[in-house]
Design goal:
Helices cover 27% and strands 18% of the residues. The protein has 136 residues and is of the alpha+beta class. Strands 1-2-3-5-4 form a five-stranded antiparallel sheet, covered by helices on one side. The longest helix is centred in the middle third of the chain and has 21 residues. The protein is globular, with a radius of gyration of 17 Å. It starts with a helix and ends with a helix. It binds guanosine-5'-monophosphate (5GP) and zinc ion.
Length: 136
């Protein structure tokens, strides 16, 4: 896509702090890090979200993400690491080219230490299960 910032980075038309590249995958530092070393892993092919992405590209991204996660975790002296992937605005997606965040974490860094978990009412979990399984 011409006006997609991540496609422009893939084509070398916009700069990035490149960490890794192969035929399918590119990885670079996030320009607005939650913590130093916050890294993005993207397929070179443009897909807006997880819903459209080809499984081959997803598998390639996850395999690369694992290797880079180990490097980021060690290099940043992190105590933990989140692998995050946001789809559409309600989930926090701002760049419409699928990407995986690798976020090194430290105790007390203030980025969601725990999420506010809800609970299911009586019979609700069974209904949810049926609705999801009916679409597989
Ligand atoms: P999202 O909210 O879509 O999951 O995350 C998009 C991420 O891309 C953000 O963390 C943001 O800082 C990062 N980002 C946006 N534009 C650029 C850019 O031009 N270069 C780099 N390296 N990261 C970017
Ligand atoms: Zn793109």
């Amino acid at each position: 896509m011409t006006d997609c910032i991540f496609c422009r980075i893939v084509r070398g038309e916009a700069p990035c702090g490149k960490i890794y590249e192969d035929d399918r995958v590119l990885s670079f530092l996030d320009i607005g890090p939650i913590n130093p070393g916050h890294t993005l892993v993207i397929p070179k092919a443009h897909y807006a979200t997880l819903f459209e992405a080809a499984p081959e590209d997803l598998c390639a991204c996850i395999a690369v993400a694992e290797k880079i996660a180990v490097a980021v975790f060690g290099a940043m002296g992190a105590g933990g690491l989140n692998l995050l992937q946001n789809n559409l605005r309600p989930a926090g997606q701002r760049v419409d080219h699928i990407h995986f965040h690798l976020i090194p974490r430290h105790v007390g860094d203030g980025f969601f230490p725990n999420w506010p978990a809800k609970s299911y009412g009586p019979g609700e979990m069974e209904k949810v299960l049926e609705r999801i399984k009916a679409r597989l």
